[in-house]
Amino acid sequence: MSESEWTKILGWPGYRVYRSEINEGAKTLRLWVRRKRGNRKLECSGCGRKSNEIAEVYEREVRDLPWSEYRTTVVIELYRVRCPDCGIKAEKVALLPSKAPFSKRFEEAVGQACESAPVRRVARQFGLAASTVRAIDLRYLERWARERRRPALRQMGVDEIYLGKKQKFLTVVTNLETGEPLWFGRERKKETLDEFFEKHLSAF
User: Fold this and answer.
1) Which residues are registered as beta bridge partners of 34?
2) In this predicted structure, what is the pLDDT of residue 166?
3) Which of 3, 33, 57, 92 is buried deepest, with most CB atoms within 10 A?
């Protein structure tokens, strides 16, 4: 299969496959990718500022979605940029949402699987440790929370949960219209709710 065909199958916007390697015995596929010509809009991962000054070129290997029965990894060529504010920093790449060795769409597949199955079952399905699945699921939920459109907060409810003799109570603030928990605070004191009003209410 040609590299242009692999590029179409991989479907990473702005990147092209320039080398591929298949191990039929181990059922693995490795693809080496780099930016397409003209795709040179680099962003600092620290502050998001655009920069065209490249300090270093390096490679990073991440696991991607499987292709048929082949476990797929992608070796991506990346840059470290000279940012006027942050110094030398890795470029920001939307396809790689964290420092973990997984692509964004792989983490999304794991996170979506966790919505309907226990962690151990998802771990077996993807051949991962249960702790790795939990970490991926947490990052998936954090991205979902940042990107989703929040419903307007018109009616707010406050309740408490008893945790036991040691931890005692947890204060819960809820959107009464949707039933969605918005915030949790330790104890059930006036200071607990004051913290929500002073530091967190504006986020809703």
Assistant:
1) 16
2) 74
3) 33
